[in-house]
Specification:
Mean pLDDT: 88
Shape: globular
Strand content: 5-15%
Strand order of the largest sheet: 3-2-1-4-5-6-7-8
Low-confidence stretches: 260-265
Largest sheet: 8 strands, mixed
Length: about 290
């Protein structure tokens, strides 16, 4: 058969991906990863697909009323045979029992690459603590309200600062820019609040860029196609973007991944990360 994927993608068959959040961005990235040759997934999301989700989600009307994680599993099984897919109907950083939360976080920490597709700050802080404790690559991203653009970012052990340090560098950079013409949207995995106003093309473009970053992070080549840890990607000539597809790399700096590193960000970050670390060390044993 004619080869349709780069030969280096064969190593993806042994790489285990955790995807947290199977909404508009997460569903698209997960399906794209399977098409790239990823065979091992841990899918985490407790939300159910509703009819109004169809305009931007990778899933179809056939999955309305079904848990998104379970529906994405079925979609993946139609793409490639013999996949290993674990599904957990769980809300990271939600109101779950400490034992259940610790067990899920340990399973997430057992993956090679962790993806946060929720755009939820509490979820990010929890996953950052897991990634740092286990020495795992973490990638994340979001689409800005109004579809004007988005953010993609990653933190790789030994090659980037730790995830919280990367996020802090991004926040410091954003503080140097003019005020954004949008309000920070609620996370993609929440039920309340104003939904994100962006169409399927906006979501797909940022999801595609984030998929490329995730694949590059998993392959971890000596010379990465992404020399920066974070990027702003414009989809409209608005805010700091001079035109569509204007891309702004973000230089990051900060503490690394060593065990004695004390960089846990703000006091709120420490409070949010503490239950995750405590649960992984103690409550997750059974």
């Amino acid at each position: 058969a004619t080869r349709r994927l780069p030969v280096e993608y064969e190593s993806l068959q042994q790489t285990k991906f955790a995807i947290i959040g199977l909404g508009s961005i997460g569903s698209k990235i997960t399906v794209s990863l399977a098409r790239a040759g990823v065979c091992n997934f841990v899918l985490v999301d407790d939300d159910v697909l509703s009819a109004e989700n169809i305009c931007r989600n990778e899933l179809s009307w056939a999955s309305v009323g079904v848990h998104k994680a379970e529906a994405v599993r079925e979609a993946l099984n139609l793409i490639a045979p013999n996949l290993s897919i674990e599904v957990h109907l769980h809300r990271v950083a939600g109101q779950e029992s400490s034992i259940a939360a610790a067990k899920r976080l340990n399973e997430i920490g057992g993956c090679d690459v962790i993806g946060d597709a929720t755009a939820n700050p509490k979820v990010f802080v929890t996953l950052a603590a897991v990634a740092k404790a286990k020495g795992r690559t973490l990638w994340w991203g979001e689409v800005y309200a109004g579809g004007i653009g988005g953010l993609i970012a990653r933190a790789r052990p030994g090659r980037d600062p730790n995830p919280l340090a990367v996020r802090d560098s991004i926040n410091r950079y954003l503080e140097t820019l003019p005020p954004a013409p949008f309000k920070e949207a609620a996370g993609y995995d929440v039920e309340d609040g104003q939904p994100l106003v962006a169409d399927d093309a906006d979501i797909t473009h940022i999801a595609s860029a984030l998929t490329r970053l995730a694949l590059d992070s998993a392959l971890n080549p000596e010379h990465s196609n992404f020399p920066y840890s974070a990027y702003l990607i414009g989809l409209r000539g608005i805010w700091v973007f001079e035109q569509p597809f204007d891309t702004r790399p973000i230089s990051v700096e900060g503490e690394g991944w060593t065990e004695n590193c004390q960089d846990l960000g703000s006091d709120d970050d420490r409070l949010a990360a503490a239950p995750a670390l405590i649960g992984m060390i103690g409550g997750g044993k059974s």
